[in-house]
Design goal:
This protein has about 725 residues and is an alpha+beta fold. It contains 24 helices and 29 strands. Strands 1, 2, 3, 6, 7, 11, 14, 17 and 23 form a nine-stranded mixed β-sheet that branches. A three-stranded antiparallel β-sheet has the order 8-10-9. The protein has a three-stranded antiparallel β-sheet with strand order 21-20-25.
Length: about 725
Amino acid sequence: MSPQFQSSAVQTTISEQEITLQPASEDIWDVKYRLKNKAGEAVDATLADTWSRVAKALANVEEAGKQEYWHNRFVWALAHGAIPAGRIMSNAGAEAYKPATSTINCTVSGTVPDSMDGILSMVKEAGLTLKAGCGIGYEFSTLRPKGAYVTGAGAYTSGPLSFMDIYDKMCFTVSSAGGRRGAQMGTFDISHPDIIDFIKAKREDGRLRQFNLSCLITKDFMEAVKEDADWQLIFPANQSEIDDEGNTIVWRLLPHFKSSVVHNDKGEIACKVYRTIKAKRLWDVIMASTYDYAEPGFILIDEVNDKNNNWFCEDVRATNPCGEQPLPPYGACLLGSINLTKFVTNPFTDEAEFDWATYREVIAIFTRMLDNVVEINGLPLEKQRAELISKRRHGMGYLGLGSTLTMMGCKYGSAESLDFTEKVSYELARTGFETGLQLGEEKGVAPIMNEDIKITAAIMAKRPEMANDGIKVGDKIKARILWAKYSSYMQQFLQTDNPEDKALIEALIEKGCRFTHHSSIAPTGTISLSLANNASNGIEPSFAHHYARNVIREGKKSKEKIDVFSYELLAYRELINADAMPFSEDVDKQLPDYFISADAVTPKQHVDIQAASQKWIDSSISKTANVPTDFPYEDFKEIYMYAYDKGLKGCTTFRFNPEVFQGVLVKEEDLENTTYKFTLDDGTVVEAKGNEEIEYDGEMHTAANLFDALKEGYYGKF
């Protein structure tokens, strides 16, 4: 059955027929998002109290006399699917109990300088950021390669990876606020001489485990792979290296290197070529690591910058820890997701439809809510606060896409599901910018909108079509014009069949917007599990309909395995066929054929869904293509090439590999089929199935989670 795209506000939606919260969901809410005092006593008596606390904190930003009205509207939106991200849920309205925490999920470090003083100063800033509860990303390819001579120190550098180890240990030590471990992203340029060391770093047990890692991939590199061409590994040269006739020097446009490097009159930087290798060989190193270790990720940095709304004033080189927010130095972003399952009417029937009118209403109110978070950001660094306030970017996305498609009788990855995904993303974007225009008129536009931007040769080279409008180098143009008229993303609204879209862009050119960025799709792991009763994560299908989730517990060294059920399974039992649906291991065999899970979706279908959404998402998307353990390696490599050809900003895969690590989500059959071996101090070897319970250090663990904790160093060296 195909999804129906008509409005059906007169019918009953899931919002009015709540499905009983499963114990795992209630437990995660209690641990992560329920406000408690220092004695551990609940301040939020119920989930409704949590909604009300958050709504009140955001409504208090409104002018006097309107706060009660907006509090009621915000509570309504929260009950109808608007779910602010974890830092907002945990910390908004909690100042009396947690005064030093932030409502911001995502940040990116300032550019890491290539000096000891600069590196350590950024470690301090990162520590303060993590302490406030924010995740943080960094680019480390600004640091000179291992073995390069440091004139001031009279010695040779140990390279970027050794300094990344410092950040890793700092993050391990500084536990993030709110009972979660710190989250970091490390990015690295594909042309850096130490790129292979970066790719292989996590092959060492326990190393860089507080990081997600991603390569910054360029179009030039991808084309070199296709053509089996050579690839130069380079780094900016100092004057003595340029003068040394034994070195090969090439000139490259590298805008992220601002100072202490040699430029020519074209703005290019002199770079020393350290090594030349076949692009395909480097590609195979990346693919082999990703196949075995699910890292490094794959960020198409040219696409990120070309599609950036702030293309004229930002050079993005890093992302937040899950990749859905590419951000400039000191960039920060607040997040939120709309639970799509709330808008399905008559689920699991031939009359199933999606309530577009209510969806748009929730988007509009939620946009105002997220914009209000800027005023209570709680960021620890002045540069972070200044960057956030200047552009007021937020990232609204959605969760439960897979669950929603199932409830509408539509298979995830089908042609119908692609149409639905594009439409749900378009409506999110369009309604968001309509609201941003209105908020700009009511409260004022983002400060950057009214700035005069001097047109440089570099800006002109990015958008040569500006010359057709009489714009030339040296002119000063309002940022809102460059943002609304010449951004590749915003221009898409001029290409739709809806004349109102053109009128929207014209109004934004004239008046500006309350924010520069509106949309982003986050992974929503614990948000989905708790506040959405385990609706599918973000843009994903449900991992399975009965599986185990490995949850971090404060004070516990290994993760705890808990049983969870998909939201659509719970809804099906409660609304359609309770007696016929026992919670058994073979539950999938008892469900209609449109109940599919992640392993039934092909990698190509995963990419197609991401591409359908990415068209209307102005930041990025955190998405993982799950592949079976026995998926052929040559086919696996084609996933990434296909993602590049589809114009995605990034791509991530996950292949269950029990020899390497234990994932967050795991199926019982995978645990049952995996044997772990433990060697005791006396040399005795103990074997256990992955799902068997083992007592160790006074705690009970599954064999899989204990093995993982020992391997990753949470009990010391393995």
